[in-house]
Amino acid sequence: MVRIALGLGWRTAHVVLHPVTLFYLLTSPRAQKRAARQYLARALGRAATWRDLWRLYFCFASTMLDRVFLLTGRSARYQVEVTGLETLRAAAARGQGLVLLGAHMGSFEALRAVGGAGAPVEVRMLMHTANAGAADALFDSLDPTRRAAVIALGRPEAMLEAREVLDRAGVVGLLADRAVRGDRMVQVDFLGHRAPFPGGPMTLAAILRAPVVLGFGLWVGPRRYVLRFEDFAPAIDLPRAEREAALHGWIARYADRLSAVCRAHPYNWFNFYPFWGDGA
């Protein structure tokens, strides 16, 4: 697909994306489709149809295709609408860094486009890279600066690097909806049902002690994105005496906002495993 996209252009690749999506939809494991149906039913408020499954898979495939063009600087034909940009502008004007809580939703590469959308700020992601696969290696080869935009967790210097970004009035991003192995889970309400969310991202946000915003790069159509930012907290506070209750409260608040975005843009949250558990 990368060869087709870069050799024959976006239009040809977009046409090819249809049979590719159909192939993966038909051949994906039943458990994967069952998990996707479960999520879609809760986001849509009705039983998910094959058309709904198609739209979820096609939205995911579209963001993957767009990454090829966004990472190689071929973004001239993309339409990017930004809401909540004043939050980033105000922080930049104060010389203050921000922690951005995101999710496995839409496109982070589109979120990086905020630098060209009137708020030129440094954006780095705090994430685990131990399980990076062939796709990550491919995208790194398309944009040599992509790897530099990641602060790899699990190293003693990771938090120091994140603190330096914040001191430069930059943005440190965290994906707060998925856990790595061994992460502590907290059960909160998500789309009307109890679901496990990792405690690690919110704990890291508390350690960084900076204002927190939510950010999502939402795919709304071919080469069209909405970058959505909203205030979340002046800072995450986890007082020692009430640590468990405070952590639960912050994660519940995040899950509530993620629920709202999932209901508004149900095909943008890319979940293909039983998020609530097999029996939920």
Notable characteristics:
280 residues, 45% helix, single chain, 7-stranded mixed sheet, 9 strands, alpha/beta, two-stranded antiparallel sheet
What does it look like?
This protein has helices at residues 2-8, 10-27, 30-44, 50-71, 85-94, 108-112, 134-142, 158-167, 200-208, 243-264, and strands at residues 79-83, 98-102, 123-127, 150-152, 171-175, 185-190, 193-198, 212-221, 224-233. Helix 1 packs antiparallel against helix 2 (10-27). The relative contact order is 0.17. With 280 residues, it is of the alpha/beta class. The chain contains 10 helices and 9 strands. The two termini are 36 Å apart. Helices cover 45% and strands 20% of the residues. Strand 6 (185-190) and strand 7 (193-198) form a beta hairpin. It has a 7-stranded mixed beta sheet with strand order 1-9-8-2-5-3-4. It has a domain at 78-268.
SSE map:
Layout: H1 2-8, H2 10-27, H3 30-44, H4 50-71, E1 79-83, H5 85-94, E2 98-102, H6 108-112, E3 123-127, H7 134-142, E4 150-152, H8 158-167, E5 171-175, E6 185-190, E7 193-198, H9 200-208, E8 212-221, E9 224-233, H10 243-264
Parallel strand pairs: 1-9, 2-5, 2-8, 3-4, 3-5
Antiparallel strand pairs: 6-7, 8-9
Helix pairs in contact: 1-2, 2-4
**Overall mean pLDDT score?**
89
SSE sequence, one letter per element? HHHHEHEHEHEHEEEHEEH
What does the radius of gyration come to?
Answer: 19 Å
Helix content: 40-55%
- The first-to-last residue Cα distance is 36 Å
- Class inferred from helices and paired strands: alpha/beta
Q: Tell me about the biggest sheet?
A: 7 strands, mixed
- Widest beta sheet: strand line-up: 1-9-8-2-5-3-4
Q: What is the number of E strands?
A: 9
Shape, per Cα inertia axes: globular
Percent in strands: 15-25%
- In DSSP terms (H or I, runs of 4 or more residues), the helix count works out at 10
- Uncertain segments: none
